[in-house]
From TrEMBL, chain A:
SMART domains referenced in this protein's UniProt entry, alphabetically: Transket_pyr (SM00861)
Gene3D superfamilies, sorted: 3.40.50.920, 3.40.50.970
Broad EC category: oxidoreductase
Species assigned in the record: Halobacterium litoreum
Keywords tagged on the record: Oxidoreductase, Thiamine pyrophosphate
GO BP, sorted A to Z: organic acid metabolic process; sulfur compound biosynthetic process
Entries under Pfam families matching the protein: Transket_pyr (PF02779), Transketolase_C (PF02780)
InterPro entries, per the entry: THDP-binding, Transketo_C/PFOR_II, Transketolase-like_Pyr-bd, Transketolase_C
Bilayer-crossing regions: none
UniProt keyword Oxidoreductase present: yes
Record's protein name: Alpha-ketoacid dehydrogenase subunit beta
UniProtKB/TrEMBL annotation, chain B:
Presence of keyword Hydrolase: no
Record-linked Pfam families: E1_dh
Classification of source organism: Archaea, Methanobacteriati, Methanobacteriota, Stenosarchaea group, Halobacteria
Keyword Oxidoreductase: yes
GO biological process terms, semicolon-separated: organic acid metabolic process; sulfur compound biosynthetic process
Protein name: Thiamine pyrophosphate-dependent dehydrogenase E1 component subunit alpha
Domain Dehydrogenase E1 component: 16-314
SUPFAM superfamilies linked: Thiamin diphosphate-binding fold (THDP-binding)
Cofactor: thiamine diphosphate
Cross-referenced InterPro entries: DH_E1, PDH_E1_Alpha_Subunit, THDP-binding
Length: 329, 347
């Protein structure tokens, strides 16, 4: 189930390329799809959409003024009247200036209208620390969004998941916020080449099987966790949940039943966040399988500092994951 | 096709629709006071000419977005009073199955894209409908109703600027009823006329007498033509007045009774239009009384319908979060209903 690339022809691609391919394929497949964001004519933030404006023109790939509230609010209006907008937030921290539209418009419109509307809106939100961009351009905010009823949230850690989930997000009749970690755009991996390939929203991926401890790791920390797994004297199962809401509790709980040990690695602040949700879900379903205290790896509730030495201090890496694994033994 | 005000029959129909809005809200006021209607409601008596004048210029295919004061816009756009009232009662037969209530009523079949109690949120939403119209070369436009209070909100400026920059087919109708909640216009704005702001977006700004249904109709019809021609949005400021408080139960310490009564006596949009039609020989007293009786009967039936309509099934509260049943919602609901738990694996 999780081996989404099995039996498919693949090519090696980066996460950036995988996202671009997914968006291009969906623009080609459906005239209702259009992209709007700042600097989209020049490829948008981090050049994910590079070339798409030249290929599809202004109608389909358009520059917006710097006004996230209007972008997302108009995205909801366009979606509710029949389009499939993809709205780009250059930095996920900016969800702060359009949170009303995400929380009260995107997330509640269908419900308030008694099911009489669909809101097939995709919001791309670029998050994560590591580029010395300081506190307002480095945050990981997916917990805030995943908490909102009526909004789906995905955060891929591999190129294949990036492509498959982006296509699912654009095709979804529900609002989906698509979180991209800005430091792993150049992570390469096998990506199915066919344009029918999708990754279902709500399905986790067992990236590495193991017997002794389960590490649930998102985005950048997926790679860090796979590296950490090589450095410990234990058989580590590494799972990318990929979809934060809905969350594939079954796959995570099944892994804990097998290993009895759990580490959750996610770049969110540690309090009240995704870690807590994953731990709670898994423990609710597999409490009697827990053999050791559960461990969290994340940012210790600070904003992200600017100075490289301080940023390195607060942002978790493979060593933090390794120590967390070791604490479970 | 849009309706017009070109014939005596059309003008009488516009008057009837204003009366319907007035009577609908009078009933809502009374039924709310009797605790029949849950939640809170915001009424628009005094502003009927804006809703009816603007919507007369629109076709069934045009979209509107509205504010927390949405009953008039909804009825003017073609929603039926019985189902609208049932929505206010929280009943299954309401336009949103009782999920939205007065502040969130919507009916996409009638181009009513939603009341928006978050002040200003109607503006980006309608702008988005304008994007759809532009991208699909549609022969409809989006008309955004928002209040003078919303023009103090950031997202309003963002959205109008976006619509202006992209020449979207949108008509912004700002209902300046002179009060934002309990605050006066002067407390909210440093301009005489909100329409001045249109210059800042590079779009036309029109000021219209919001008590004059003909003037509103003509202004919005012209703005709609402009939008359809690809010339972009128009900012229409309709000067009007609300007779009731911000919400029902508002004690209105911010204004005098005399001020309200003066507007009711001198500038009531229904009285003004009735007098105009009568002076033109298009409306007799008998015709007006018959119209009023007809509206009263319609509302009697609507109240009975709403009162007697079924409550929505409580368990349906879990539907429509997403297009498909939401797995988390189902799982959590299941777990909360279960006595005890075994931690999933048994002991």
């Amino acid at each position: 189930m999780s081996a989404t690339t099995a039996d498919r022809e693949t090519e090696t691609a980066s996460i950036r390329e995988a996202l671009r391919t997914a968006l291009r394929e969906e623009l080609l497949a459906d005239d209702d799809v259009f992209i709007m964001g700042q600097d989209e004519e020049d490829g948008g933030s981090f050049e994910v959409t590079a070339g798409l404006h030249d290929e599809f023109g202004f109608d389909r790939v358009r520059n917006t003024p710097i006004s996230e509230a209007a972008q997302v609010g108009a995205g909801v209006g366009a979606a509710a009247t029949g389009m499939r907008p993809v709205v780009n937030l250059s930095f996920a921290d900016f969800v702060g200036v359009c949170f009303d539209q995400v929380m009260n418009q995107a997330g509640k419109t269908r419900y308030m209208f008694g099911g009489a509307s669909e809101v097939p809106l995709t919001i791309r939100a670029i998050e994560g620390a590591g580029l010395n961009a300081a506190a307002q351009h480095s945050g990981t905010v997916h917990t805030l969004v995943a908490h909102l009823p009526g909004v789906k949230a995905v955060a891929p850690g591999t190129p294949a998941a990036a492509k498959g989930l982006m296509k699912s997000a654009v095709r979804s009749d529900d609002p989906v916020v698509f979180f991209e970690n800005k430091t792993i755009y150049e992570r390469h991996g096998p990506v199915p080449v066919d344009d029918d390939f999708t990754v279902p929203i709500g399905e986790a991926s067992v990236e590495q099987e193991g017997e002794d401890v389960t590490v649930v790791a998102t985005q950048r920390l997926l790679g860090e966790s796979l590296a950490a797994a090589r450095d410990v004297d234990a058989s580590v199962e590494v799972i990318d949940p990929r979809s934060l809401y809905p969350l594939d509790t079954d796959t995570l709980a099944a892994s804990l039943r097998k290993t009895g040990r759990l580490v959750v690695a996610d770049e969110s602040p540690l309090s009240y966040g995704l870690h807590a949700e994953i731990v709670t879900r898994v423990v609710e379903d597999a409490f009697w399988s827990v053999d050791a205290p559960v461990q969290r790896v994340g940012v210790p509730d600070t904003p992200i500092p600017f100075s490289p030495s301080q940023e390195d201090e607060v942002v978790p890496d493979a060593d933090d994951v390794r120590r967390a694994i070791e604490r479970t033994f | 096709m849009a309706q017009t005000l070109d014939t005596p029959a059309a003008r009488r129909d516009a008057l009837r629709r204003m009366l319907l809005v007035r009577e609908f809200e009078n009933r809502v006021r009374d039924r709310f006071a009797d605790n029949e209607i849950p939640g809170f409601v915001h009424l628009s008596q005094g502003q009927e000419a804006v809703a009816v004048g603007a919507c007369t210029a629109l076709t069934d295919d045009d979209y509107i977005t509205s504010t927390h004061r949405a009953h008039g816009h909804s009825l003017a756009k073609g929603l039926e009073p019985d189902r609208l009232l049932a929505e206010l009662y929280g009943k299954e037969a309401g336009y949103c199955g009782g999920r939205g209530g007065s502040m969130h009523v919507a009916d996409l079949d009638n181009g009513m894209l939603g009341a928006q109690p978050i002040v200003g949120a109607s503006v980006p939403l309608g702008t988005g409908a304008g994007i759809t119209a532009q991208l699909t070369d549609a022969d409809w436009v989006a008309t955004v109703f928002c209040g003078d209070g919303s023009v103090a909100a950031g997202q309003v400026h963002e959205a109008i600027n976006l619509a202006a920059t992209w020449h979207l087919p949108v008509v912004f109708v700002v209902e300046n009823n002179q009060y934002s909640e309990g605050m006066t216009f002067d407390e909210q704005h440093n301009v005489e006329d909100l329409a001045e702001m249109a210059a800042g977006y590079g779009i036309p700004g029109e000021i219209v007498d919001g008590q004059d249904v003909t003037a509103v109709y003509e202004t919005v019809a012209a703005a709609r033509e402009r939008a359809l021609a690809g010339d972009g949005p128009t900012f229409v400021e309709a000067k009007t007045y609300r007779y009731r408080g911000h919400f029902e139960g508002d004690e209105e310490p911010y204004r005098t009774r005399e001020e309200v009564e003066e507007w009711e006596a001198e500038r009531d949009p229904i009285d003004l239009y009735r007098e105009e039609l009568a002076a033109a020989g298009e409306l007799t007293d008998d015709q007006f009384e018959a119209m009023r009786a007809d509206v009263a009967e319609t509302m009697d039936e609507a109240v009975e319908f709403a009162r007697n309509a079924d409550e929505p099934a409580p368990e349906d509260a879990y539907d429509d979060v997403f297009v498909e049943p939401a797995p988390e919602v189902e799982a959590f609901r299941e777990r909360m209903r279960t006595d005890g738990g075994d931690g999933g694996d048994g002991r």
